[in-house]
Specification:
Number of strands: 3
Strand content: 5-15%
Radius of gyration: 18 Å
Order of helices and strands: HHEHEHHEH
Distance between the termini: 25 Å
Helix content: 40-55%
Shape: globular
Number of helices: 6
Length: about 170
């Protein structure tokens, strides 16, 4: 939770000082830039047993939205995009091996049927995930089209889940 939340926030803080140069940059359009924050579809819809991950991704999306509003309000030539990919074919399932010692799971923390279910789901999703090159091409397209949301391609089940969530919000239902 802390890593997912703070990493995005620290990146955003690094961009915020650039707002002060907005008036200078506005006179020099060649200085225009794009900030792309990797969120996840988990920042738009939640799943069982994944609260810490979802919380960090919802926070990352909110931070990206706020940054986009802040930069636009001061006329900064810095655009923002929120990359919300579906499962990507990476080695995220092996991330425990590279955690700093003080953040590694303690004995007994990663046990139980819920943990096993989530770990199995992650491994399965990643094994059939979208290749990173396709995600990169999607980001480049979104930057060129000046789009904020960088979402999965049409027909992806995550989009259907997101649509269902947005409809639930609109209709005020659980």
């Amino acid at each position: 939770l802390m890593t997912g939340t703070w990493a995005g926030w620290m990146a955003i803080l690094a961009v915020k000082p650039s707002r002060r140069a907005a008036s200078h940059s506005a006179r020099n359009p060649s200085l225009s830039r794009k900030f792309v924050n990797t969120v996840s579809m988990a920042g738009l819809c939640s799943t069982p047993f994944t609260a810490p991950y979802n919380i960090s991704k919802f926070a990352a999306l909110a931070a990206s939205e706020c940054l986009a509003h802040d930069l636009a309000a001061v006329g900064a030539p810095i655009g923002v995009s929120a990359l919300c990919p579906e499962a990507v074919a990476t080695v995220i399932g092996l991330s425990e091996r590279i955690r700093p010692p003080h953040l590694r799971r303690k004995a007994g923390e990663a046990e139980g049927p819920e943990f096993a279910l989530v770990e199995q789901a992650i491994r399965g999703a990643v094994a059939q995930g979208t290749p990173p090159g396709q995600i990169a091409a999607r980001v480049v397209r979104a930057i060129r089209e000046d789009r904020f949301y960088v979402l999965p391609e049409d027909g992806d089940p995550w989009l259907a889940a997101c649509d269902a969530r947005l409809e639930d919000v609109r209709l005020r239902r659980n």
